[in-house]
Each structure stands twice: as structure tokens, then as C-alpha cells.
Amino acid sequence: MNRQNARPPSLSLYLTGEQPCSYLPGRQARSLFVDPLARMDGSRYRWLLAQGFRRSGRFIYRPACRGCRRCVAVRIPVSAFTPDRAQRRCAQRNADLHLVRLPAVFLPEHFVLYRAYLAARHPDGEMAEGDAEDFQRFLLDPWGGDTELFELRLRERLIAVAITDVVPGGLSAIYTFFDPGELDRSPGTFALLNQVAEARRRGLDHVYLGFWIEDCRKMRYKEHFRPLEAWDGLAWRRYERSEPIPTPPDGAGR
């Protein structure tokens, strides 16, 4: 058996109570969490990613909503990915930016950019009022594996930061924030193109994107990266550029 696909020792899982869904108004959400006290490393986390889990801070989880499976875990197969016309234009617009790779350390410059991004893009979100400690807990908390920061800079000026986990065989795109004054550059798209390019440079198989939600506009950008693989609860299914990604209907709960 491929060691990357080997099932890790048993892990305890915990189901949260229901709370209002932050993506789909009027719905209730709940999550299945891995025991936060369990020993974690890149190999274990990689196996969990391959089962549709996601990391936020020290917590690794996947949605387990009653009667709803709208959150679909997706990943990019790196060797097969081909940018579309809009993505090629995005790369051309950003040819003057350069990539800087850093370990997961707190830098005040990053926090200032993060606050500006939230104020412009998510002013009503619960993270908008967070302080530097909240920022570090959300994005920089040690979890047992490797996290890198991919900066995009215009000469010395910081344009974007992509928080990226590194696991055997892949990268996981955790969170990206950018200068809200640079929207014409589509910096989020360019940051993800850089993550795919970095995965290819390292000989990795996948870039994990978290959850695609058809009915949530801010999560739909992921469907433009093709081919895209989606987790259906049992296996990963590949969808080419011309193929719609199916969303399980209401009532198909976990």
C-alpha cells in the first residue's frame, strides 16, 4: 500500500451542536472534529485531507450537517491543471510581482494587510474585530506539521499572503488575504495559480482548496480551476472544464 494513502491509527471524532450556517442563510450547520489533543503530523493530516477534512487553526474538521451536503471538498490535480484564458491573463497582469516563501511566523506587516482585507471584503464577519492573537490562532498556530507563507510583492510592497500547509504529496490552501486596493489584479486567483505552480515545482500531486459551495458566491471561484476533483463522501471524482460539478440535493445528509 502507498504509505501516503495508509490509514493512520484510530482517531477520536467529535460532533458539534448545530449553529447558524456562515455560508448559506437560513440553514443550520454542524461539524465533525478530530480530537484536538490527538498527535498530528503531515502524514495523518494528508490522510484526513483525502477524506474531505479541512484545517482551521488547530482544529481539523469537515461539515456534518443534518440533511445537507452542500459543502463539497475539492482539490486540483496538479499535473493535469491547465489555466483558462482568464487565468492566463491574470498571470500576465501580475508578471511584475515576485513570490517570497516564509515559515509560519507572525509579522506585523501581515496583520496590517489582513485587517485591511477584512475591513474591505468581510466587514460584518466575526473575524473583522479580531486582534493579533486571534490572527495567530486562526492562521499560525502550530498543528504538528509544516505551514508556509507565500508572499506576493511588488518590489518591496506587500500585495498578498497565502497561508499554505505542506503535506506529503500536496499543498493545502488555508487562507489568502490581499491588498483590497489591488482588485484589478485578481490577487486571490494569482495567489492560487502560484500555489499550483509551487506544487508542480515540488513534484506534488494535489492542491487542496477546502470546500466548494455552489450556492455561495464567495466560494464558487474554485470551480474555475480545471480539471477539479470533488469528494463525494466515498471517492474523488474528476470534472473537466465542460462538466458541471454536482451538488447533492437537500435530504442527502451525512
Automatic annotation (TrEMBL):
Chief place where the protein resides: cytoplasm
Protein name: Aspartate/glutamate leucyltransferase
Role summary: Functions in the N-end rule pathway of protein degradation where it conjugates Leu from its aminoacyl-tRNA to the N-termini of proteins containing an N-terminal aspartate or glutamate.
Domain (N-end aminoacyl transferase N-terminal) ranges: 19-89
Enzyme type, top EC level: transferase
Assigned EC number: 2.3.2.29
GO cellular component: cytoplasm
Ranges for domain N-end rule aminoacyl transferase C-terminal: 109-231
Family per similarity comment: Belongs to the R-transferase family. Bpt subfamily.
SUPFAM superfamilies xrefs: Acyl-CoA N-acyltransferases (Nat) (SSF55729)
Keyword annotations of the record: Acyltransferase, Cytoplasm, Transferase
Single GO biological process annotation from the record: ubiquitin-dependent protein catabolic process via the N-end rule pathway
Recorded catalytic activity of this chain's protein: N-terminal L-glutamyl-[protein] + L-leucyl-tRNA(Leu) = N-terminal L-leucyl-L-glutamyl-[protein] + tRNA(Leu) + H(+); N-terminal L-aspartyl-[protein] + L-leucyl-tRNA(Leu) = N-terminal L-leucyl-L-aspartyl-[protein] + tRNA(Leu) + H(+)
